[in-house]
Amino acid sequence: MDKAKRTAIIAGNWKMNKTPKEATALLKEIAPLVADADCEVIACVPYVDLAAAIEATAGTNVKIGAENCHWAESGAFTGEISTGMLKEVGVEYVVLGHSERRQYFGETDETVNKRTKAALAAGLKPIVCVGELLWERECNITEEVIARQIKLDLWDVTAEELKNVVIAYEPVWAIGTGKTATADQAEEVCAFIRAQLAKLYDQDAADAVTIQYGGSMNDKNADELLSKVNVDGGLIGGASLVAEKFAAIVKAASK
Ligand code: PEP
Prior knowledge:
The longest helix has 18 residues, at about 185-200. The chain has an eight-stranded parallel beta barrel, surrounded by five helices. The protein is an alpha/beta fold and about 260 residues long.
């Protein structure tokens, strides 16, 4: 399948930024700027912003995602949010396994897998993040790390379910650092991810998966990164908080 047939997706990851009022204001700024997008546009926002974000984007092409979810339907998990809660407020996507969750909050491939399975079972589309640490790249084990994450994070995910999975390749050394992977580095790992998916499923299934790059993608470097055949979109942190920059990335993905 050629790249043009895959869904290009630009998703903002707002992290722990913006109150509900600020989220409404930013989305009202973003929506008209991306109204003509020829790609899917998503804003993944803090839990407390979800309801306001869904209201602010009603009738627009901007979809709303969450930044995590729990695997249990309900129960004694203080501070957690279930997939059912997200579905009921109108969330469509959920970021899972972000490196900040892995680094600061004890997320493991096992818990990413449990969250992924739960999200899919609830009808949410997970954006599953994988990526190597700088040390791992320097030790030449990037492919080993990525292969392990892909295998474990998608363990027991069926080929049918894979159709609703987005993979985000986010080299940890490039997140929030201003250090972008070169377009060739991004392409190399995104192509490797697709090859791993082909091994675990089959080539057709792998060819249909949207693979994003994330890590200091911005309005200046988006064109080059998104020109690569296996880079189908972007997961954007810092630049997603500035309407014009985010819209410029969406425009780059719409070409
Ligand atoms: C991210 O948070 O997923 C991310 C890629 O951040 P940034 O664009 O700021 O590097």
